[in-house]
Design a protein that fits this description.
mainly alpha; 177 residues; 0% strand; 8 helices
Length: 177
């Protein structure tokens, strides 16, 4: 755009203005697309937590189920749990991450079990279990980050573990991303 404008001898102020306007429109479209994707994820997550099964007829649920059961997400969640474990055991410092250190130390066994279960690629996982593990690590109100007592963290870790161990009601959705 800039090159064409200058080659056509259009005043530089108009060329730069038009270019900036096009960039702003592109940014707005990208932000709208990202917001739409996040909204679709939230809708699918609520349905999957409720117990809806991912079937080929439901493109939204099938897409989100594949995303949740991917080996990439399993590895990412396992690595996040490993970093949290290291920080709580004072091996490293992640920085200003507001971890619920007392509760995590009290439930270190469950945290390790969840990490090992996620890292075990030889076993299938349920979509609901992956969703619970993902929420445990990504939501700010999670007992990993809040000041909840260790029983609340134990319940959340235990629920994620139990759900990961359940026999999947649909075919395994392990997909490479």
């Amino acid at each position: 755009m800039l090159g064409i404008g200058f080659a056509a001898e259009i005043r530089w102020l108009w060329v730069v203005s038009a270019t900036c306007l096009l960039v702003l429109v592109a940014l707005a479209q990208a932000m709208a697309a990202a917001a739409g994707l996040e909204k679709r994820r939230q809708v699918a997550d609520e349905w999957l937590l409720w117990g809806a099964a991912a079937r080929p007829a439901s493109a939204l649920l099938s897409w989100r189920a594949r995303e949740l059961a991917s080996t990439r997400l399993r590895w990412t969640l396992a690595q996040s749990l490993r970093r949290i474990e290291r920080e709580v055991c004072c091996e490293t410092r992640l920085g200003p991450v507001p971890l619920n250190r007392a509760a995590i130390r009290a439930q270190l066994g469950l945290l390790r079990a969840l990490r090992e279960r996620l890292a075990d690629r030889s076993s299938t996982v349920t979509v609901r279990g992956m969703l619970l593990a993902d929420r445990l690590l990504t939501e700010p109100a999670s007992p990993l980050y809040s000041s909840a007592c260790d029983d609340v963290l134990a319940e959340a870790l235990g629920e994620a573990l139990v759900e990961l161990e359940r026999f999947p009601t649909s075919p395994p959705l392990d997909a490479q991303y």
